[in-house]
Amino acid sequence: VAPPVPAMRLAALLAALRPVLPLVLGLSLGCSLSLLRASWSQSGAEEQCLGAAGRTGPLGGAARPEAADGRPGPGHEDFRPRIVPYYRDPNKPYKKVLRTRYIQTELGFHERLFVAVLTSKATLNTLAVAVNKTVAHHFPRLLYFTGLRSAKVPHGMVLVAHGDERPIWLMYETMNYIHQHFGSDYDWFYVMQDDTYAQAEQVKVLVTHLSINQDVYLGRAEEFIGGDEQARYCHGGFGYLISRSLLLKLHPHLDSCRNEILSVRPDEWLGRCIIDFLGITCVSQLQGQQYHTYELAKNTEPEKEEEEEFQAALAVHPVSDVTLMYRLHKHFSRIQLDRAYQEIQDLQMQIRNLTSLTPAGEAGLTWPVGINAPFLPKSRFEVISWDYFTEQHLFSCPDGSPKCELSGASKADVSEIIESALEQLNSRYQPLLRFSKRQLLNGYRRFDPTRGMEYTLDLLLEAVTQKGHSHVLAKRVSLVRPLSKVEIIPMPYVTEATRVQLVLPLTVQDLDFVANFLDMFAMNTLDTHDNALLTLLFIYHPYDAQRVSQVDVFAGVKAMVGELEKRYAEVKIPWISVKTEVPSQVKLMDIVSKKHPVDTLFFLASVWTEINMEFLNRCRMNTISNWQVFFPVHFQEFNPALVYRGEQTASSSTDFLRDGHFDRHSFAEACFYNSDYMTARTKLAADILDRDEVLESMEVFDVFLHYSGLHLFRAVEPGLVQKYALRSCNPRLSEELYHRCVLSNLEGLASRSHLAMALFEQEQANST
């Protein structure tokens, strides 16, 4: 008998719902439990509030106070952010907000560590110099404090002399000076003597593990003679660390300490001052960090010291002579290098062990382990080329020649790489084999910006076994000099408000381009009220100078200048007339330099330059008085007759970079300060001894390169664009200058593809 139809439908429905029944039951049970939990929590909270309101005992007093509006009260430590609405009184005049120079100043950030070295007139040129040569470059800021200074201060040391050699007075004045000049800039202050050797890197690591919110007086704790057993002062010979908060609290009491506390030792005087007025004693251990020190005995040999206390010391005292200071520095530097190498090996082992767990597996392990993989080019234009070299020659020269002698830094680099390769081979195969170099067969190197300098060497080696048998073999080795820690080079602060003095030399051959230059100058500087002035330098040939009363070749230019001065009443454009057959850039600059103040920022321009505000700002920022000069590489447009050949019009001047190239042969444009030029020119005059013919073979770039000692910043400048023009090369200049001018004209014609197309079309036209 068939089952009834409703029963069949119910069975089919249950069969369809069976897979989701656990989900439905789980959701129902979860919702029920959450509702029950919410009701219990509400009732418990109400009872607790009622109980707290009805009791006045300690439990009731432990409740966190709240304000009437529901926000946390003064005893509540749960800080909640709230929006503070901006309101400005319309009745008060608006005052412009002055922003700080650096964002870290506005945000209240401080530098980490300041170091003060206490020295004397007797040891300034000995122990203080040794401290400066060993550890000074490891600290971000280090100053030397002395009572009386010698007649000549050692080079590279910042010295502060207080005028009195009394030890207590020196300590008092030093603390006052540090608070006044650096109290608001640094978090930690480390004070040491010049007969102390401190491990700079370990001191820097120490301060990174300490909290800046506490009053810290950390060093080697010593007992006062006949004083309280609980009170301690920090021994000055081993250095001590003071926090910024402690220095700020101590400063108001320094005068009282000077008048009330009598002591012979300055470190005892400072420790007693801190204890009496602040109640803080010196400690050797704080926040889990130990200040390790070691006291040197007489006739100590640092190389033979094997005590663990000596190896872990942050400060060593007393250092009796300069030689011992250098030996200590060598010993501790070797210890730090061994620790660094061991840490590198441990990290490489961990990387190898974890590589198998990565998706790439063992194939993802790079060489060397822990260094970035080589750069993978995405097109042929991104391929990094290898430079070939031998032990005597380099086949990729800076001047473009195919072969040049290996010298200077490149020679030292190659020698060091070969020595390192032999050292690695011997460390791997000894004592079974011992290698010595016969010859470098081939050498290749390239700079990979993702990992560093890569080398491939083909070495002809002589391998000697333990039994004395030798064999000559060729072996290829690969080495990498990885990029080390990136450091920010400190640079002086410059602004964009400096006035730029443009200097434009003009010859008769430049007359056709002057109108365009003046139009661009008026549009981009005078109309925008940029802080820039222009001085014209008219260079007359002796023949034209004799006829200037009848026919002035620069009369049209002077008329244009007059029109500009009428249009811009506040603008004056002076000009200087010079008569010469050889327009030497240095001689012309000598004339201009004498007519301007020493703090003038010059921009030596050419008539083909298109002046714009973007470049002028870059000229201001890249030129730093007594520090750096700027020689931009302008962008030179190609000859439009060869590039476009009448088929298409030249692109507009608003394009970023038109068809052209950066002319590295031209040094005509330069940004520099007059004071820097005058200093370099004085050194040049003492060198050439009135031989003016030497100046005809030099440019301003050569003057700064050989006689200034400043940084020469030469970089491509996309904001400095020049239209195509065939320059007239003066054959009376030096051979090098004339050759560079000819090369600039030839390379400025067109690109290789454009020249090839022009030759192809010319051959087709000739064949027909």
UniProtKB/TrEMBL annotation:
Residues 1-22 form the signal peptide. It is a single-pass type II membrane protein. Gene3D superfamilies: 3.90.550.50. GO terms for cellular component: Golgi cisterna membrane. Keywords: Glycoprotein, Golgi apparatus, Membrane, Signal, Signal-anchor, Transferase, Transmembrane, Transmembrane helix. Residues 66-80 have a biased composition (Basic and acidic residues). It is an enzyme of class 2 (transferase). Its EC number is 2.4.1.-. It holds the Pfam family CHGN. Belongs to the chondroitin N-acetylgalactosaminyltransferase family. This is Hexosyltransferase. It comes from Herpetotheres cachinnans (Laughing falcon).
